[in-house]
Amino acid sequence: FALDPVGLHPRERRRNSLGLGRLGVGSMRRLANLSYASCAPSRFEDVAPSDASHANVGESRGKTRLERVGMEHAQDGMVIKPQSNTPPLDTSKWPLLLKNYDKLNIRTGHYTPIPTGFSPLQRPIEDYIRYGVINLDKPANPSSHEVVAWAKRILRVDKTGHSGTLDPKVTGNLIVCVDRATRLVKSQQGAGKQYVCVAKLHNKVEGGVAKVARAIETLTGALFQRPPLISAVKRQLRIRTIYESKLLEYDEERNLVVFWVKCEAGTYIRTLCVHLGLLLGVGGHMQELRRVRSGILGEGDNLRTMHDLLDAMWLYDNFKDETYLRRVIMPLEVLLTNYKRLVVKDSAVNAICYGAKLMIPGLLRFETGIETGEEVVIMTTKGEAVAVGIAQMTTAVMATVDHGEVAKIKRVVMERDTYPRRWGLGPNAQAKKKLIADGKLDKYGRPNESTPKEYLRAVPDLDRNGGSTPTAKAVEVETPVETPKVEPETPASDKKKKKDKKEKEKKRERSPSADASAEKKKKKKDKDSATPKSEKKKKEKKDSDDSE
After folding, report:
1. Catalytic residue among 4, 76, 167, 543
2. 167 an active-site residue?
3. Strands 284-294 and 171-178: what pairing?
4. What is the pTM of this model?
């Protein structure tokens, strides 16, 4: 075995030559013997070298040091091997609309990311406030409108709204929507509510706790309700649904009942307490009420007080510390987590913000179980809510078709031009813009006298080829068809008289008082016709004498 410096890197060869130059000839021989001894098999191991080992030694002689290291790493399995499938992502702990993102159905994975927009939790603080909601614990005595007005003044924003009015004395869950989130107020006002109520019974119930519990469970399903006397709406009989109700506590000494109720939006718990008293036969009224859930947010979902909001804003104004403000305010996407999701390409976002329908080419992922007419949330790949839409296709259709309308827009949440415009960038659109600029098309893109014939031949006229808006040019001249003349059976005046007569008869049938007055007039007329003219003249003369 001999040292072969040929296969080494030039730098290493130079370093070795310098090192060997310092050694004597004897030292070089000892080095050679040592290297041979290390490579030779031990005398205790009676192993013959195989052909493969000779081949490896020969191969390693012709390799550089870096290549040899690479080969060792590859043999140890320290290499990322190519694979056809993408490794699965665990998105179960991702926030808001991105939760379980990997379980969505994939239509395509090809799109161009646009470096605009922000993840909901990483928005700048100004945008975070404008796209925020507060799960507020409403205090007793101020009205819901007053509380919302205070929040607007504290946060210094243009608009605020709430998820459903609470009476002044009622406390509990009130969702305050800030600025852009006010567009979701209607959806939250119509969501179901949950209350804990304290009712006062006017007398002792003979059956005890069992009878009270049975009466509360009876008051479920669709119930007739008339708003109480102190309500601000028209006192009209209406139907409201109680989904579930249960007794929490009954104090027999003080005749107080504490119960929990899950009901439809617009249910009057005050009226429910009166009905409970009537059902028990003792009478009753509402003593105290607290809302524990409004829609998707309840008491345990980041409930904050007005003091928390005021303190958080004070810290931000004086110390620029936005951490407390981010704890008090939540992104509006919190309200949309129970909707089914449609993920769109970044290039389609701004078109949707301007009111365009979502079409198949703009769709990236979609949820399982979407039905036609169902409300869905349209979101970006960063997890931002773009709009609330109404699905025009089922999940099965979305997976199979190549073109068509996926959803139409119900309410746009995102502000326009958050993402850049990506429509009108194709070759046809660019050519059309140029012709409009040159005056060869009018400002709406319609052809005029100076439009080139090549353009007219290349671009189909949709109006002329069966479009929805027919033009004057597309009118066809119809050939007149001779029809035999039909003489009218009765003149128009006779028809009109008959029609008037029928209407009068219908009116008489409807009103009996009209029939009575008509009979009186007829009798008077008959009486007048029965009396001779001489008597009439005498009567008229007598009346004139009396008047004098």
Report:
1. 167
2. yes
3. parallel
4. 0.65
